[in-house]
Amino acid sequence: MTIYFIDGxxxxxxxxxxxxxxxxxxxxxxxxEVVKVYDGELFTAEEHIERLFQxxxxxxxxxxxxxxxxxxxxxxxxxxxxxxxxxxxxQVTRGASPRVHQFPELAVTPVVTGYAxxxxxxxxxxxxxxxxxxxxxxxxxxxxxxxxxxxxxxxxKQEAHEADCTEAIFIRDGVVTEGSSSNAFGVKDGVVxxxxxxxxxxxxxxxxxxxELCKExxxxxxxxxxxxxxxxxxDEFFITSTTSxxxxxxxxxxxxxxxxxxxxxxxxxxxxxxxQIPLSVARD
Length: 284
Ligand code: PSZ
What we know:
Bound molecules: ligand PSZ
CATH class of the largest domain: Alpha Beta
Order of helices and strands: EEHEEHHEEHEHEEEEHEEHEEEHH
CATH architecture of the largest domain: Alpha-Beta Barrel
Mean pLDDT: 96
Shape: globular
Largest sheet: 10 strands, mixed
CATH topology of the largest domain: D-amino Acid Aminotransferase, Chain A, domain 2
Structural class: alpha+beta
CATH superfamily of the largest domain: D-amino Acid Aminotransferase, subunit A, domain 2
Strand content: 25-35%
Distance between the termini: 24 Å
Radius of gyration: 19 Å
Number of domains: 2
């Protein structure tokens, strides 16, 4: 049975002390993070927790814990749930208060919840690649905030799912921004191209790892918006996220990317990424 962290306590119940007045329910008024666990250890936890604080600050929400305390809670969740390969989910909402749109008049304490769960690496997708569907990016203009408001992402993912695709790729004004829950990269003539970390995308932690690996491997990078047309002419395409790592995209809107199999640059990056995680897991 999963052990949760709810409002300062570790508990088997997933509902203890959760209020119907929580602003997470009413407005999606909160932020969250997903941290990967390999071999029972958190991966890039500092970066994720730092981004959680940045997201919170951008919506004027003061997290009632320090960064170190949240890392300790995440570690405790991994231990309590005996997770070896999986992830920790953590969210912070503005708290519980009778429903008004503006912040509560009387100060309320933000609510921190979390859990750790076993989930295998999506090896089949990582090795064989996935299909994606492009959708119009109808999200707001603060996609740099990892907020609980995911309705546009949910609808996009569902649209992709109904088309037998693994991910939806957002297009805003003819430019590829990112996936519904991933960052998007193209490879053309050996150059890795991805949208710059502006307000129009989430600056993914895996994205940052990949850009660092490109530097180490001597692979050229262009951080620029590329068009839908350019996307369709890429030699390779891949998506990145905490749980999907580096996943090759072999089909876009029903058309094969390059040869229709994972590309060489993508595979080189995957190999370098696998070297960063514990060997026993990389070999899973
Ligand atoms: O388990 C899952 O389905 C996950 S874990 C992380 C995500 C999904 N998504 C993160 C994300 C995102 O939601 C958007 C809109 N853009 C990019 C990303 C990738 O961010 P990182 O690499 O930090 O996970």
